[in-house]
Protein: Rieske domain-containing protein
Organism: Pseudomonas marincola
Amino acid sequence: MDRQTEIELIKQALALKACGETQYHESTHSHSTQRYISADWFERENQAIFQSRPIAIAAACELPLPGDYLTLDWVNGVPLLLIRGDDNRIRVFANACRHRNARLLPIGDTGCRKRLVCPYHAWSYSTEGSLLGAPDFERGFEGLDKRQLGLVEFSSREIGGMVFFHPDRDKGVPENLLADEMVFGFAYLNLQQQKVYKRRSYVIKANWKVLLEGGIEAYHFNVAHKNTLAPFFLGNLSTWQSWGDMNLRMVLPKKPMLEAATLPESAWDIRAMANLIYSLSPTITLLAQPDNLSLIRMVPLSVGETRIDEVLLVEPPEKGAAQWSQEELRTHETNFNLVNKVLNEDWALGETIQANMASGVVDEVHFGRFESALIWFHDEYEKIMGIAADALVTER
């Protein structure tokens, strides 16, 4: 965002707070729990969302140097290997040797390799995916062409510091996929220069939408986060904006924003006065706090399970140092654990929500007018899924 946008967002939040309001939708919204618990529904999502559209899968700064890689599974157990090549481009490959399909690297692994060597028969690949060599290849694999046995590659593109891939290998990732306002927002956050402090990964027993919904509304702050977030935020107050698709930017004002009314605009700093959320559904949420970014990656594993990767991104060490100072490390560790604590407050609720939905006791959910970002999200979701507007509650 530019400076004028930053000022306008603060003014918008101040105006809402002054009249005791938040960003409303014109009506409430209700729909069936089937979209959270039905295996058939999950398969519909698989076809309409998880396999048919470009997906944000990582931040480029997670792979800063040639040879840096990370591995993860996509929906249907598709094994992915992201690696920055010697040409500095990040590519997305299948994490599978072309010989006998062995995994080249364990799932959830990160590190740096100058070449990728299969642990089964030592077939080796370059960081650009080409087959470099295989023991006794000429003698044992007569008729096969090494040039045709590179790693299986998915179309991918780096946009604004985020890495997108297309799960359908016959389709590409458009250059203009992401709205300019989102790209400008990532630049404002200095996303491409961030460094990975730490990461953790685990599985939550809840549908991906249940977990995503908890991250884009503030109605629950004073209850679910009464001892963590509530003391620092302005209650049920948030603003958001979207520029198409299921992507949005949300502003969650904190109590220091009230001081803006007494300060000159030149002293206004939205990162000090609010948390910013950038959501790239269904996988990536970026939570911007004053001195760090939390990347929360969600991979839907099944209708009732979602893998979560938490990655804390921070600025490089001060004054060009090779390592963070002890004070910086203490700050980063505190933030890493605090974000996890808050998320687990949401995840614990999410698992009970999923279990209750599966029980069938209550068969619908409702979003209030002040949960407007949730209504927007489901409006966009329904367009992609091809759900008729008059079938919100009766869907099966």
Remarks:
- The chain has two domains: 3-53+179-391, 55-165.
- The longest strand covers residues 292-302.
- Confidence is low (pLDDT under 50) at residues 392-396.
